[in-house]
Amino acid sequence: MDQIEQTLAVATEHHRAGRTAEAERLYRDVLDASPGHPDALHLLGVIALQSGRAEEAVDRIGQAVAGDDSSPLFHANLGHALHACGRQREAALSFARALTLLTNEGEGWGNVGALANLIRRYDDDIRHAAAAEVDAHYAMSDVMRRQSLLFLLTGDIAHYRTLVAAALEDPLRFSVPSMHYAYWGIAMRLFHGDVRSGDVGGFTSGEFRRFYRLLVEETVRRYGLDVRLRRAAPRSTVKRVALITNQMLGEGHQPTADAFDYARRLQDEQGCEVVIINPNAMAVAGENGFVPEYSYNVTEEYDGEQVMAAQGAQVRMVSFPQPRFDEEKLTAIVDTVERFDPDVIVAFGGSNVVADLFARSRPVVFLPTSSGLPPSLATLLLGYAPEDGAAGWPEDDRARFRPFSFGWTLPDGGPNGGTARSRADFGLSTDGPVFAVVGNRLDQEVGADFLETLDRLLDRLPDAHVAFAGTVQDLPGRIAAARNAPRMHALGHVDGIRGFYRMTTAYLNPPRQGGGGSAAFALAEGVPVVTYAHGDVAGVSGPGFTVADEAAFLDRAVMLAMDDAKSAEASEAARKRFADTGDRAKSVERLLGYAQEAQGLF
User: Fold this and answer.
1) FRET pair for 542, CA 20 to 30 Å: which of 105, 107, 269, 332?
2) pLDDT tens digits for 507-560?
3) What is the predicted pLDDT for the residue at 149?
4) From CA 551, how far away is CA 587, in angstroms rounded?
5) Taking a C-beta distance cutoff of 8 angstroms, is the pair 54, 77 a contact?
6) Which burial class, exposed, middle or buried, applies to 425 when counting CB atoms under 10 A from its CB (0-12, 13-18, 19+)?
C-alpha cells in the first residue's frame, strides 16, 4: 500500500468514527500530494455536505465525478448535494446516472430501489428526464428490468405495454417463472395506483389480459399439465367443492378469514365436501430482474394436508409453501385437485392462475375479493359489490358476469361480546371527533396527498384527531412532518376493531383499491364512511357514502363531526347498508346456485 492509500485509509477511519476535522486534514494532505485525486475530493465533499456546506459539497464532488465518472457512489452523493442546494433536476439526473451504473453492473434491488425512490419524490417532468437518462445509457438486454424500472421512475403505462408486448410477441424468450413474476409485479403496481400517465383501462382490458392468458396457457403447455387435467364428466349436483385461493396466511389476514368462512359455510351450512387448496401462487421469490423486487408472504407451517380449525369449525386444507412457481409444484397441485375430483372449483381472490389451469376441464366460478374487471378464465365471473356490473367489459366477460355481493361475517366483538374499550386505551383524546383510517397496507396507501387532505381537515376541526389502525413502518415518520402531527396517531394493529370503531366519528378512506372488509365492519357498527367513488370501499359502502372530490370529502367529514342530527342519520344509513348487502350466508347460497349454473354451462 503506497503512502496515499495509507493516508486515505486512516482518514476514512477518522471519518467513520465522526472525527471529521482529522479526516478533512488528511484528505487535504492527499490532494496536496495528488491534486485532483477523485476519492479525496469526493470524501471532502461528503464532509462538506454533512456539515451543511452544500455548495462546497457540489463543487468538491463534482470535481470527483469529472475525474472518475464510473463511480455510482460519486454520482449518488453529488445528487444529494445538488438536492440540498435545491437543484432538483440536476440532482435527479445524478441519481439516474448512479442508478444506471449500478443496474449495468447487475446490482440487486436494494441500492437500485433506494435511488429510484429518491427520483420518485420529484415532479413528473423531472422524473421523466431522469428516466430518459437511464434509458439512454442502459446497457443490459433484460427487457423486464429495463421497462419495469422505467415505469417505476415515471409511472408511464407505456413501459408496461412495451414489456408485455415483448412477451406476447415472443413467449419463448421468457421462462414461465419469469412471466409469472412479471405478471404479479405489474399487478401490484397497478393495485397500488402507481400509474401516473397512460390509458390504464385500455392496458388492463387489452394487453395485460392477453399476457395473463398467455401465462396460464404457457404454464399448461410447457409443464405438460394438459395430460393431467382430465375433463370432468357432466354432473347434476354440486357436492364436492375445491376452493382455490392464492394464499392462506393465518390470523390477522382478512382474505384468509374470508376464504375459510366461505369454505366452512359451504361445508357446514350447504352440506358440501370442501377442500381448500393453498398453492401460495403469488410470487414469493424473485424469478427475474423485475423492479421493484416483489414477493408475498408464506405461512410455512401450512404444509401438506391438514385440518384448519377456526370459528368453531374445521375444514380440510392442502398447502404448498414452496417458494417457487415451477413444474414440480404445479404438477403436485394439479394432481391433488384431480384426486379430489371436485364438481366445481371456486377461484377465490384476484388473479388466480392455479384455478384457471382447470378452466377448460372443469366448471370454475370466480369469486372476487376486490372490485374491477378480473383476468379470470372461469366459467362464471361474480361481482364484488351489489351495484357492480359488466358495462364496458369485453364481450366475452360480459356474458360470463353474474351479479353478486361478497358479503361479510363480522369478527368477534359485537354489542354483547368483546372487551369494552375507551379512547384512553388507545392514547386518544376523550373529547372531540376521532376519524379512523384503517388498512393492512397503509404505508403504501396513505400518500402525501391524502396526508395533506387530513391536515386540511384538522385545520378546520381544531379539536379533532385522526387514528390510523393497521401495522405500519414508514407512515409514522411521514405523519411527523404533517402540520397537525400531534393530532395524528398511528396505533398499529388493533385487536377488537369493532370496539375501536364504536369510539370513532367516521371512517375516512384514502384513494386506494382495497379496504372493503374494514369498511364493511365500520358500517356494521354504524360508522359512516367517507370515500371517493372508486375501489372496494366505494363498492361496499354504496353511492350514499361516496364523494366526488377533495372539497366534498372534507365537507362530508366536517358535517359528520359538527352536525349531530346528520351524523345520526348517516350512522343509521351505515347500519342499513350492511344489513341489506352484507349477509355472508345469503352470498354463500347464491354462490352455490351459480356453481350449479356453471355445471350446466360447461
Assistant:
1) 269
2) 999 999 999 999 999 999 999 999 999 999 999 999 999 999 999 999 999 999
3) 96
4) 36
5) no
6) middle
Return the number of other C-beta atoms located less than 10 Å from residue 374's C-beta.
25
Nearest CA-CA partner of 179 in 218, 225, 222:
218
CB atoms within 10 A of CB 221: 12
Give the sheet arrangement for strand 344-348, strand by strand.
Answer: 304-310, 313-319, 273-278, 240-244, 344-348, 364-367, 380-382, 401-402
* Helix (H) or strand (E) run with residue 146 in it: helix 143-154
Q: Go through 353-372 and write b for each residue having 16 or more CB atoms within 10 A of its CB, e for each that does not.
A: bbbbbbbebbbbbbbbbbbb
Residues 6+ positions from 116 with CB-CB distance below 8 Å: 99, 149, 152, 153, 291, 292
Is the full-model pTM beyond 0.85?
Answer: yes
Cβ within 8 Å of residue 471, ≥6 positions away = 440, 492, 493
Greater confidence (484 vs 351) lies with 484
Q: DSSP label at 508?
A: E
Residue 54: C-alpha distances to residues 37, 89, 270, 569 (Å): 20, 16, 70, 57
- pLDDT the model gives residue 424: 85
CB 321 within 8 A of CB 303: yes
Question: What is the rounded CA–CA span in Å between residue 201 and residue 373?
Answer: 9
Nearest Cα neighbor of 354 from 382, 318, 400 is 318
Could you identify the residue written with the cell 394464499?
247
Element (H, E) at 148: helix 143-154
Mapping DSSP onto H, E and C, the string for 531-592 reads EECCCHHHHHHCHHHEECCHHHHHHHHHHHHHCHHHHHHHHHHHHHHHHHHCEHHHHHHHHH
- Scanning the structure block, which residue is given the C-alpha cell 488528511? 26
Question: Which stretches of 170-253 are DSSP H helices?
Answer: 176-191, 200-205, 207-222
pLDDT in tens, 277-312: 999 999 888 888 899 988 888 999 999 999 999 888
Q: What is the pLDDT of residues 199-229, one digit of tens each?
A: 999 999 999 999 999 999 999 999 999 999 9
What is the chain's mean pLDDT, rounded?
A: 92
